[in-house]
Recover the amino acids of this structure.
């Protein structure tokens, strides 16, 4: 049943002034009028206090001592000791006496103890004011009286329609319903738009692109009555349709390609969900199924074939893309769950469920218990982890293959790994003798030549002269100090023989190609070895190129450190610290010293010079070093043998890529505990996982996992789902919904302008099997959709009654795509992953968060969207908010947008490219006509033609410059930017 | 000295004249449009008479140590090395922080000015302006992470994206000079929490902060890509096309508004570079800010640019000192405060004196703050740095509507907690809004069914003590 419109206005007016809605409908009158001040004082100061301090014992059904403080009636009746409050007389009120610990002592010491003085003062003041208390104790759910809630218009069942779906007849019915209001408002509907206008409107609407010259010509030539229907079908069949309408959906689900936590990490797999949405629109996946899949696709597809299973998992990307918060995102998951619940409510149901996190919803029938009943469902769900600064890289991504498939994929690689392991063992066996030699001589042969701490940011030189023999070692060891192991340490080290050829060796020679070998260079002439010497020499055997994404930095290491590394670039590298150009570094690990060994090919005297400098002064306590001579000539060859065994093992290669999705799966199911005032550290009673109280409060069946399957069904069976979605479809076609607050169908939202029409559409949607394309056909066939645009008048400034069509600006994506279409550069293929840096290289911190803009000629729906940093173009032209559901795009008109059309390099580039293609047409008039057809989908009038020819002639510069200027003028025009 | 908005450059005048001459619609429709209350940027009435017309918001990134700058704590020197207990968010469950010890400040404090305000040796120039400052020593905030605390200081929200204070201000005030953005953020490097720091979020995009990165093109797309004479030809042709289009569309306001934005944008091409061109500044002025002729970076450049912007009617100028790295985040060594202070000290003092000399100090509110303080303790007595400290820090206000030479509130004797008249970030925001003529509870915007405000749902109070 539908509630008459007049009633809605009444409700809205009342809500503006009243805390308890619908008081007019109440049976019992309220005893005394409460002043605005009184009500205010109660709501701001008293109610929170009572909730926090008293309700646990004196709330509702569990009224201690018979006293309930949850309603005014409760304290009026009082408990075993009589009425708790004498209004206006704090001195005579038991409540005040008790909290002052004069007679009774409340709250008792085991329930928090005596209240602080200022809270006692608040309650005393309240009683002195006459104890104004609006809580009349009727049956209330959240912010609404139960009866009002159960009869709330948006929750009512949809009408059941007898007549089957019939596009033309149903469209006529829609027009009749609209016409009724148009007449009631004293308006007159305008005529139908001309065909060119209509096709431009339709093509932008369904595809977000301008119609091609060919399609315009074909449509104009088709004079059959079905020409428009054919055009609709053609546009709906193109995959570009899904790009445009998928993007609408991505607005509502606040899709983004980064996580939004403090480092704004990329989500390299989120694109699969984005593309699934686009594909779902293209194949007209039934909307109820579309909804179920996003909430519980992984569970619903468990027993289906591999492709369907993968699709089900990908669909739950909807949940996974929820924003992450803070530094350690595991600590702030309660905010992520709020983001999920808030979006799920607005998105599918038009309910602002997120408002019930800290307290009952103030206006809608949603209690805080309801919120935590849903919360438990998501807490029982494992969300893919995007990584964060203290916890590194992503995990819990969901594989899109079953275990058997993964095993089959992994088997050949694992066999390779086994071979490598075997080879390693074989070499170690071979090097056994050399290892024994090292063990025997390493420590006993050491003579320390120099030894020094290197303070924070300091540099310590060394300069020694000594006799060495071939095969002996010089060893420079860098030690981490007590608390900070990880200091980047600059090492300069030159060795010169004083006689003979006066040959020299220097670590500088390692800088251009450190990764050539270890020992370096390879072969019998080994000179340098890079070692972890925590417990005897161990070769740094892992090669790392492109540290921190910088190609000039390469390292030998074991893990990320210990390592030796070089900056081979001609410029200092600014990474975790500033690394001077062309330098060699040692980086000890935590309690793991690193040594560089030089094997002497010399018999004679050498001079050893250099310095050790702390290159990362923020580390804390600097480093220390030792320069040793290992005077045993067996050591050099033995070290080389051990090195050859340890380094350069055959490589099994990277493991095969298992396709994964940024998605969710179930984990151990458990109910959550209530968060007092939304504080996750103040836990209250356990709340069973269940559906909203107002919709029956059914609990999640036992042993069915998290409860997402049940939730998906509850949502999909509620009439709100159809109402909210048809309203969105209407809005995306007409610019405004029948319910203008398209994310809010609750008490604070706006009532529908055409309630009967909204329900008719919703019922048709159900009848069509939730076919979105059927709804498009229905809406597009109305006369209302095909009317001319007009400038709104004072009678109907918002064009609520649809006597004409609403002119609209192109969205950010439509604008950019149109510019690319005109220049001929638009790449209409679907994008896949963004070119993010590989996960292994991520070192994002809150000091250096992820930040990128990727250029692409693909459609703008595929631009990489960051949560922390808006894409500059999308931000300029009112793109969707990547942090919150965007049901309606804003349209701002600001001078910085005009600057874009005047000076932006991308805009200029498209205009110049367009002009170059125009110049292939020899004849000027034909060229101008072509320009008009491509930009505005019409031919210029002869006056326009003359004027623009004159513009071109007067414009200084080359032919190309003149026509680029003309292109800019057309592309900056209102006629181009607005759809009629 | 007068501070009237600069006369239009001659090319701009010519353009307006030609625009007026070339059309019966212009400039009448422009006037009509400007008068239209629907224009998001037209100047607006405040709740009560504002004390200040402009704000310069100086944000020191990374967490300035209060006990080494504006909050003298001799007890820290006397009890250096004494072990204390604190249930502090930065040491909770942190290995190596089982024990914490007080740590003495590294700079001496001395009284300055007639008011005798104690400021440390880190700010010798600013100390000379002590009699102009209203110093708050009892600031505190709700988070100990840079990201969250920075977001909180800018938006009032410590987790979610919300409109920034500059956006609220432009939303409330409109703008005085259509050729310049109403809200300008001058930041040499990216900040913590990214563009959220100056985002309009759910407020209309017109209130978004415009980012200025010191350098050759401070505002995106203001540099003309074709010579001025050619651009004027293009704009004239465009105007003609658009007017014809408009004439058959009953002067649709949205189409009209867009025509007008080209006018403004044309002006911005001159006005923006002009605001950042210091050629006309005297050598004395440049020297006072510590600038060399031709220098286009550094905090001195930011300060002088701020003065030039507010002279031209910009409402809110935020100067971000450094960025998300290489800032005041002195975990390793407090001595890193020395060059950072040196970088800002002289320019800020010069800005105060310059504004006073030009009569702008009485209509401009200067706000100096950071996201949080630094711990008065560390895990060893001789650790050189300090950790993040949300419980207490110092900020100051100066200029329009603010008492001069006063100190508000105090921390306990070791600077651990704000104990006397504590000022939370939301109280700080309420005070700033008050000085700009707004009741923080009434400057609201309806979004997703709720009325949002900068100060959020918790109680916030104006710091009356420092109002003049």
């Amino acid at each position: 049943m539908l509630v008459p419109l007049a009633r809605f206005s009444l409700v809205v007016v009342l809500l503006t002034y009243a805390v308890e809605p619908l008081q007019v409908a109440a049976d019992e009158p309220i005893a005394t009028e409460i002043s605005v001040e009184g009500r205010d004082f109660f709501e701001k100061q008293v109610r929170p206090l009572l909730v926090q301090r008293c309700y646990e014992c004196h709330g509702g059904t569990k009224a201690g001592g018979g006293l309930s403080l949850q309603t005014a009636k409760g304290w009026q009746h009082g408990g075993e000791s009589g009425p708790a409050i004498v209004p206006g007389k704090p001195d005579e009120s038991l409540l005040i006496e008790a909290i002052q610990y004069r007679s009774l002592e409340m709250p008792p010491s085991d329930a928090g103890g005596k209240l602080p003085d200022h809270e006692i003062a608040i309650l005393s003041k309240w009683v002195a004011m006459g104890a104004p208390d609006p809580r009349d104790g009727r049956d209330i759910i959240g912010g609404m009286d139960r009866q009002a809630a159960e009869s709330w218009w948006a929750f009512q069942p949809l009408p059941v329609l007898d007549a089957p779906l019939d596009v033309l007849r149903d469209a006529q019915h829609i027009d009749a319903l609209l016409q009724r209001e148009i007449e009631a408002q004293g308006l007159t509907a305008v005529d139908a738009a001309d065909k060119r206008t209509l096709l431009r409107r339709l093509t932008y609407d369904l595809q977000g692109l301008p119609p091609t010259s060919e399609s315009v010509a074909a449509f104009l030539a088709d004079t059959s009555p079905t020409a428009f229907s054919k055009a609709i079908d053609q546009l709906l069949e193109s995959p570009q349709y899904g790009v445009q309408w998928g993007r609408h959906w991505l607005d509502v689900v606040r899709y983004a390609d980064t996580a939004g936590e403090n480092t704004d990490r990329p989500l390299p797999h989120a694109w699969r969900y984005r593309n699934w949405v686009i594909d779902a629109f293209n194949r007209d996946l039934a909307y109820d199924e579309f909804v179920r899949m996003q909430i519980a696709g992984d569970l619903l597809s468990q027993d289906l074939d591999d492709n369907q299973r993968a699709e089900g998992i990908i669909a739950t990307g909807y949940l996974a893309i929820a924003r992450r918060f803070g530094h350690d995102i595991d600590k702030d998951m309660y905010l992520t769950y709020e983001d999920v619940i808030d979006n799920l409510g607005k998105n599918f149901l038009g309910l602002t469920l997120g408002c019930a996190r800290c307290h009952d919803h103030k206006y809608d029938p949603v209690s805080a218990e309801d919120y935590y009943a849903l919360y438990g469902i998501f807490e029982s769900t494992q969300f893919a982890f995007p990584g964060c600064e203290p916890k590194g890289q992503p995990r819990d991504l969901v594989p899109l293959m079953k275990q058997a498939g993964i095993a089959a994929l992994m088997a050949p690689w694992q066999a390779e790994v086994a071979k490598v392991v075997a080879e390693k063992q074989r070499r170690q066996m071979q090097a056994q003798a050399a290892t024994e030699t090292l063990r025997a001589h390493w420590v006993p042969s050491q003579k320390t030549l120099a030894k020094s701490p290197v303070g924070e940011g300091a540099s310590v030189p060394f300069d020694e002269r000594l006799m060495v023999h071939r095969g002996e070692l010089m060893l420079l060891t860098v030690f981490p100090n007590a608390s900070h192991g990880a200091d980047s340490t600059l090492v300069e080290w030159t060795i010169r023989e004083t006689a003979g050829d006066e040959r020299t060796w220097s670590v500088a020679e390692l800088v251009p190609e450190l990764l050539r070998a270890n020992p370096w260079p390879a072969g019998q002439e080994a000179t340098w070895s890079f070692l972890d010497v925590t417990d005897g020499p161990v070769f740094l055997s892992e090669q790392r190129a492109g540290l921190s994404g910088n190609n000039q930095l390469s390292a030998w290491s074991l893990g990320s450190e210990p390592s030796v590394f070089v900056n081979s670039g001609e410029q200092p590298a600014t990474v975790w610290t500033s690394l001077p150009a062309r330098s060699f570094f040692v980086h000890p690990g935590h309690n793991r010293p690193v040594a560089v060994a030089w094997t002497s090919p010399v018999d004679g005297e050498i001079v050893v010079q250099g310095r050790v400098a702390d290159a990362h002064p923020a580390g804390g306590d600097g480093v220390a070093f030792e320069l040793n001579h290992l005077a045993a000539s067996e050591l050099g060859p033995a070290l080389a043998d051990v090195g050859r065994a340890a380094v350069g093992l055959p490589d099994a290669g990277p493991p095969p890529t298992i396709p994964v999705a940024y998605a969710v799966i179930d984990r151990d199911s458990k109910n959550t505990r209530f968060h007092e005032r939304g504080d996750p550290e103040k836990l209250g009673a356990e709340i069973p996982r269940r559906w909203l109280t107002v919709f029956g409060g059914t609990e999640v069946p036992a042993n069915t996992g998290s409860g997402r399957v049940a939730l998906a069904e509850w949502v999909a069976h509620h009439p709100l789902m159809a109402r909210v979605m048809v309203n969105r479809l209407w809005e995306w076609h007409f610019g405004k919904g029948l319910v203008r607050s398209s994310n809010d169908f609750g008490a604070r939202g706006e009532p529908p302008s055409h309630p009967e029409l909204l329900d008719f559409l919703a019922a048709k949607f159900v009848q069509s099997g939730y076919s979105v394309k059927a709804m498009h056909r229905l809406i597009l066939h109305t006369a209302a959709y095909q009317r001319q645009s007009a400038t709104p008048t004072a009678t109907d400034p918002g064009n609520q009654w649809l006597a004409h069509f609403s002119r609209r600006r192109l969205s950010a994506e439509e604008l950019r795509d149109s510019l690319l279409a005109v220049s001929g550069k638009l790449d209409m293929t679907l994008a896949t992953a963004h070119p993010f840096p590989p996960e292994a290289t991520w070192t994002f911190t809150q000091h250096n968060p992820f930040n990128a803009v990727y250029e692409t000629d693909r459609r703008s729906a595929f631009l990489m969207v960051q949560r922390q940093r808006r894409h500059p173009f999308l931000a300029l032209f009112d793109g969707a908010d990547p942090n919150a559901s965007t049901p309606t795009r804003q349209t701002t008109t600001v001078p910085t947008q005009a600057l874009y059309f005047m000076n932006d390099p991308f805009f200029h580039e498209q205009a110049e490219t367009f002009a170059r293609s125009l110049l292939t047409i020899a004849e000027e008039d034909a060229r101008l006509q072509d320009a008009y057809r491509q930009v505005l989908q019409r031919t210029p009038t002869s006056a326009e033609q003359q004027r623009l020819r004159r513009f071109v002639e007067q414009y200084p510069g080359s032919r190309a410059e003149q026509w680029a200027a003309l292109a800019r003028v057309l592309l900056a025009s209102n006629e181009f930017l607005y759809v009629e | 000295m007068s501070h009237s908005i600069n006369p239009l450059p001659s090319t701009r005048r010519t353009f307006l004249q030609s625009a007026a001459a070339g059309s019966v619609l212009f400039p009448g429709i422009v006037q009509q449009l400007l008068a239209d209350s629907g224009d998001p940027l037209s100047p607006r009435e405040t709740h009560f008479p504002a004390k200040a017309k402009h704000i310069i918001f100086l944000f020191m990134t990374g967490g300035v140590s209060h006990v080494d700058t504006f909050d003298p704590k001799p007890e820290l020197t006397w009890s250096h090395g004494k072990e204390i207990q604190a249930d502090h968010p930065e040491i909770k469950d942190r290995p190596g922080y089982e024990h914490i010890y007080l740590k003495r400040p590294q700079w001496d404090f001395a009284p300055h000015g007639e008011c005798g305000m104690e400021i440390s040796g880190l700010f010798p120039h600013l100390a000379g302006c002590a009699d102009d400052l209203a110093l708050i020593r009892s600031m505190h905030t709700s988070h100990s992470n840079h990201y969250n605390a920075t977001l909180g200081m800018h938006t009032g929200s410590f987790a979610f994206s919300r409109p920034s204070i500059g956006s609220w201000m432009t939303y409330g005030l409109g703008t005085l000079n259509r050729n310049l953005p109403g809200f300008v953020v001058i930041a040499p490097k990216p900040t913590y929490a990214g563009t959220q720091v100056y985002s309009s979020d759910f407020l209309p995009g017109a209130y978004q902060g415009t980012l200025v990165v010191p350098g050759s093109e401070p505002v995106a797309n203001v540099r003309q890509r074709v010579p001025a004479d050619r651009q004027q030809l293009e704009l004239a042709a465009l105007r003609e096309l658009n007017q014809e289009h408009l004439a058959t569309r009953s002067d649709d306001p949205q189409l009209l508004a867009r025509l007008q934005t080209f006018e403004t944008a044309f002006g911005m091409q001159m006005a923006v570079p002009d605001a950042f061109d210091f050629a006309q500044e005297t050598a004395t002025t440049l020297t006072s800010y510590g600038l060399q002729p031709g220098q286009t970076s550094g905090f001195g450049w930011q300060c002088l640019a701020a003065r030039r912007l507010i002279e031209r009617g910009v409402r809110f100028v935020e100067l971000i000192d450094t960025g998300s790295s290489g800032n005041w985040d002195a975990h390793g060594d407090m001595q890193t405060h020395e060059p950072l202070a040196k970088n800002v000290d002289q320019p800020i003092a010069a800005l105060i004196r310059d504004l006073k000399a030009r009569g702008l100090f009485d209509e401009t509110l200067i706000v100096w703050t950071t996201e949080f303080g630094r711990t008065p303790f560390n895990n060893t007595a001789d650790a050189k740095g300090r950790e993040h400290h949300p419980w207490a820090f110092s900020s100051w206000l100066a200029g329009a509507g603010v008492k001069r030479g006063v100190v508000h509130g105090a921390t306990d004797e070791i600077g651990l907690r704000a104990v006397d008249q504590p000022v939370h970030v939301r109280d700080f925001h309420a005070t700033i809004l008050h000085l700009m003529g707004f009741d923080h509870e009434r400057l609201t915007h309806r979004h997703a069914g709720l009325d949002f405000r900068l100060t959020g749902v918790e109680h916030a109070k104006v710091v009356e003590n420092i109002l003049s």
Observations:
- Chain A touches chain B through 80 residues (CB under 8 Å).
- Confidence is low (pLDDT under 50) at residues 1-31 of chain A.
- Residues 403-430 of chain A form the longest helix (28 residues).
